[in-house]
């Protein structure tokens, strides 16, 4: 079996677009439909298995407008895989690309309404998500989609059900809490219940969402710099929620007060929470024309680019090398096309507030001739859009080669599989489900 062999004879692996604790996500090309899709791959030899559960949940929430479309799943000698709709950037990377690393109130509210609906849809099919965080929401890029309240195109979809748990019994009852539960989730966004080893319920997903809102609006959480979950828990308990809402509209206090009022089995009033956000949206005179921060950033970048072009600043750009501090971020981006290659690379890294994967840069350097067109496209994209995703620098061919190296160890044929089941022993991922 080789990785140049398309999965199920149909999906050809292109570049890597995501990496998490549970799996790697690649962009694939569907030879049948000629569209791109995403594949999440989980090594079969991993101790912890989460993909089977993820597939189950994803298939159950297919009616939700806030989930990626399930396409197929299967397994080969090395991986279990899930093929799904290719979404756009996740909310964590979008926020980090904003000049102050914050979202405006309007963007937070627009996203918030959708995130509540997405969480509600997961709960409605009987599951808790248990890992609500910004990187587990990604934008659907299709321009055809419009939300019912007329907000801009691009739904915010919930992803990654690797830590989900069924909270409803087969009789439709709420499962009783277990005495003691191990920590689940991501420490920064976990509810205090989770730190305290308590059984989680629907309210806890909303606690994580509340923390996310604070992070969106303020750029960080008070425990941002802490690594140990015990220290994070201590700080969470020290901070009053009302203190965290300081300088924020009063509805955020009402928001957490509602969550605080919920008992273990209570169904959150999702509609009420959405209404709090939409009321705030209108109170601040935002409307259907109010754009997302990244749309504004893109527009600013484009217009600055054309201004700069008009003034022929690019011609004198080399003289500005190393003295760009007094320029705005987007102006820096626009100027970048005029600088020598090394400067471009370093400045792009700094200005985007991100570090490109080292091997990507090295690869890029080693294959300069081969990749020069690709690089030019990226510089061009920065000039056009003001945003570039580090993943865009990945060379699809190299990614496939890397994979192929790994796969050389493996002999034998890829097993064909029906899309309805992945043959994974349930017991092997019980540590995650329980
Ligand atoms: N369908 C998709 N389309 C586009 N990008 C995706 C898709 N699914 C996942 N990603 C990207 O890959 C990243 C990691 O995916 P995911 O969270 O599912 O993996 P994980 O291994 O469970 O991660 P973690 O350990 O953080 O929980 C996401 O943050 C997102 O940016």
UniProtKB/TrEMBL annotation:
InterPro entries: CK1_Ser-Thr_kinase, Kinase-like_dom_sf, Prot_kinase_dom, Protein_kinase_ATP_BS, TTBK_Asator-like_STKc
GO molecular-function terms, A-Z: kinase activity
Keywords: ATP-binding, Kinase, Nucleotide-binding, Serine/threonine-protein kinase, Transferase
Transmembrane residue ranges: none
Binding site for ATP: 40
Domain of life: Eukaryota
Protein name: Tau-tubulin kinase 1
Organism per entry: Anaeramoeba flamelloides
């Amino acid at each position: 079996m080789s990785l140049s062999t398309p999965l199920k004879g149909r999906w050809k692996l292109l570049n890597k677009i995501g990496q998490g604790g549970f799996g790697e996500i690649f962009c694939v090309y569907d030879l049948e439909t000629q569209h791109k899709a995403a594949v999440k791959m989980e090594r079969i030899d991993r101790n912890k298995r989460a993909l089977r559960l993820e597939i189950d949940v994803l298939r159950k929430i297919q009616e939700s407008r806030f989930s990626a479309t399930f396409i197929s799943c299967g397994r080969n000698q090395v991986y279990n895989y899930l093929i799904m709709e290719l979404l756009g950037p996740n909310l964590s990377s979008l926020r980090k690309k904003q000049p102050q690393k914050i979202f405006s109130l309007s963007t937070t509210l627009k996203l918030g309404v959708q995130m509540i609906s997405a969480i509600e849809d997961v709960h409605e099919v009987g599951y808790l998500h248990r890992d609500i965080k910004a990187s587990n929401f990604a934008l659907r890029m299709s321009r055809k989609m419009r939300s019912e309240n007329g907000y801009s195109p691009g739904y915010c979809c919930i992803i990654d059900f690797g830590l989900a748990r069924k909270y409803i019994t087969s009789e439709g009852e709420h499962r009783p809490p277990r005495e003691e539960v191990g920590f689940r989730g991501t420490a920064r966004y976990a509810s205090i219940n989770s730190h305290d080893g308590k059984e989680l319920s629907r309210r806890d997903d909303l606690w994580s969402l509340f923390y996310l809102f604070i992070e969106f609006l303020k750029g960080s959480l008070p425990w941002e710099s802490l690594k140990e979950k015990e220290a994070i828990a201590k700080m969470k308990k020290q901070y009053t929620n009302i203190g965290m809402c300081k300088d924020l509209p009063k509805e955020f206090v009402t928001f957490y007060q509602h969550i605080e009022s919920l008992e273990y089995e209570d169904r959150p009033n999702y509609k009420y929470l959405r209404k709090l956000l939409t009321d705030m949206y209108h109170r601040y005179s935002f409307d259907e024309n109010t754009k997302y921060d990244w749309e504004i950033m893109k527009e600013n970048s484009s217009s600055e680019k054309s201004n700069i072009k008009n003034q022929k600043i690019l011609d004198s750009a080399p003289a500005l090398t190393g003295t760009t501090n007094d320029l705005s971020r987007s102006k820096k981006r626009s100027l970048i096309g005029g600088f020598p290659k090394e400067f471009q690379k370093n400045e792009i890294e700094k200005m985007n507030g991100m570090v490109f994967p080292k091997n990507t840069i090295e690869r890029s350097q080693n294959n300069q001739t081969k990749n020069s067109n690709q690089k030019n496209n990226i510089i061009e994209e920065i000039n056009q859009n003001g945003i570039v995703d580090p993943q865009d620098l990945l060379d699809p061919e190299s990614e496939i080669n890397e994979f192929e190296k790994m796969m050389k160890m493996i002999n034998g044929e890829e097993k064909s599989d029906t899309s309805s089941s992945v043959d994974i022993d349930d017991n092997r991922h019980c540590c995650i489900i329980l």
